[in-house]
Amino acid sequence: xxxxxxxxxxxxxxxxxxxxxxxxxNMNHEYMSWYRQDPGLGLRQIYYSMNVEVTDKGDVPEGYxxxxxxxxxxxxxxxxxxxxxxxxxxxATASDDVLTQYFGPGTRLTVL
Amino acid sequence: xxxxxxxxxxxxIQEGENLTVYCNSSSVFSSLQWYRQEPGEGPVLLVTVVTGxxxxxxxxxTFQFGDARKDSSLHITAxxxxxxxxxxxxxxxxxxxxxxxxxxxxxxxxx
Lengths: 112, 111
Hints:
- The structure holds two protein chains of two kinds.
- By secondary structure, chain A is mainly beta.
- Chain A is about 0% helix and about 50% strand.
- The radius of gyration of chain A is 13 Å and the shape is globular.
- In chain B, β6 and β7 form a beta hairpin.
């Protein structure tokens, strides 16, 4: 079954404690992206990757890092989380048509 | 300021009623998509409209792209409780290969 997997699905942490949210896809898609979703603001792109070892900033990259060492995985790293990073995070993938995106189930992060 | 404004923000209707959700912008988009998102899940693509004036139908859902490619609408006929969810529009930004999302319309259909 084609799917995008995110872990963890829920996370409560404290300010400054480094964390990683993993994203894995089994569709052999080259394009992967991270979004955050906040009430009244919709989905905003954090980072995206067109292929292995190629990553670019989205609209709201501050406070986040990503890596793309292999095609199937695209982890999101928060080196020093802050309360304003409390949000619902989605990973998405796409094949040749990067506009047809498949979203993961989401990770709800709370930073205290 | 949202590049794509969706209205209404929230809609609660009875089963069987019709409704229309709007997605408006002052910018031109190369294409526009509609997604539906259910609680605890990621958005799922419903349709992509590409040509100004284009109308697409998906069962009881009708999607229209404005002639000037600045706006779109989603019309649901005879809404059912299963239509409940968050409806998001997303535009293909003409200056780059990326999507810009609206804030969404929360639809609740009561039985």
